[in-house]
Amino acid sequence: MTLKGCIGLEIHIALKTKTKLFCSCPLDAKSEANSNVCPVCLGHPGVLPSLNNEAVKQGLRIVTALEMQVPEELRFDRKHYIYPDLSKNFQTSQFYFTLGRGGSLGFKHQGKAYSISLREAHLEEDAAKLIHQDDESMVDYNRGGTPLLELVTEPVLHSGLEAELVLRNLRLLLRRIEASEANMELAQMRCDANVSVSEDGQPTGTRVEIKNLNSPRFVKQAIEYEIGRQRELLARGGKVVQETRLWNENRGITQAMRSKESAHDYRYLPEPDLPVVALPPELISAIGSSLPELPEARIARYLREYSLSYEAAWRLLDEPAAEKFFLACVEILPEPELIYSWLTNQVAELLKEKNTELYESCLSPAKLVEIIRLKQDGAITSSNAKLLLKLVLETAEEVPVLLQNHKLILISDESRIRSWIAQALEKNNSALEAYIAGKRAVFGFLKGETLRRSGGQADPARVDLLLGQALAEKEESR
Ligand SMILES: [Zn+2]
To answer: How many A from CA of 74 to the centre of ligand 1?
Structure first.
């Protein structure tokens, strides 16, 4: 029988604050290494930490948005370990009383609704960053002391895909409530996955921790690989060892790193240097009511108001610039599906071609609507609409000017089209004769000659009609 995968995630979220968790050193990823440090975040003896209230507030925003239970008091604990990335030899974290417990993350994927149970969330300081180069190792303490919220899910996930979806939807939520930039490539969100396999209904097997996964895609790949590895190992009569493994993205495999510590190895102790902070219910409810509309609610509203699909609404939320642009367009032209289609097809294609972003281009909501309307009214062809869009993306010129300068507008004026037809027939007498003699296929050629004389601006449908009439008249006059 196939063994079922069982996965729990530990997600480290860097909170959006100006300064570190226990000192006033600024948080700036672009600073020179070891420039944003002080005796507190370097762990010098005799210094006292002071709590950053903004970090607590951001942490509370997240746990409240995830409907976790918040304790009445905020307390910290020391987690002891020794490693070059932690100069004070303990990390100030939370163990006995965590900032949040329970709660869930809800989302849908391909019509299926998920509600992922959460275990707990705790505030802690980040360790410094180790940089290994050739045979040298360096440490940058700028990152040490960054406020983190570590969110732990219950081991309720069964596949790499589910884990990837958790990260994508959590990121959507974090960005929406502006509690974290949650950019995994910049390590603002990092994920460890605990993976085991077991028979359906049986207790979970020995778990392996895959550390420091830095993109939703790698999380999926690493988990899928690890489930496969454990299944194969057990099928051969082997045993899964409790250990920490790393994902090697170049080889597409997980590799053993070290045996896994248990909680008692860290000898957690209540932090004596920080006072206990009361978290009264009024504070929690005030934070709850200060939250913006959360992704699930907003998606539901977009489905209702704009008849978008869940995936379409999700994609809009995932790109706030596109969402803002979409909403501005819908204000002017209340045709959401049409606008969404333009944004995700024609506009997205051109932006990709030019390797640029919507906000960097010269396209404004008003201009896009202008182009959509011209196309809708039949004033320009599809290909000219695309050309016009391309021009608008590149230049700040107004749409009517571009239409005129590039002769993009369709001409449906009958007398002008008739005169181009007359010219085309006069210059192509042999084709006209062939047509009258019954060779109907030359119609296309004569149409092309007419359009060429109009500089491609004559309305093709109108040309069809009027050229047909002109040819019939010529035949009758014989
Ligand atoms: Zn500092």
So the answer is: 21
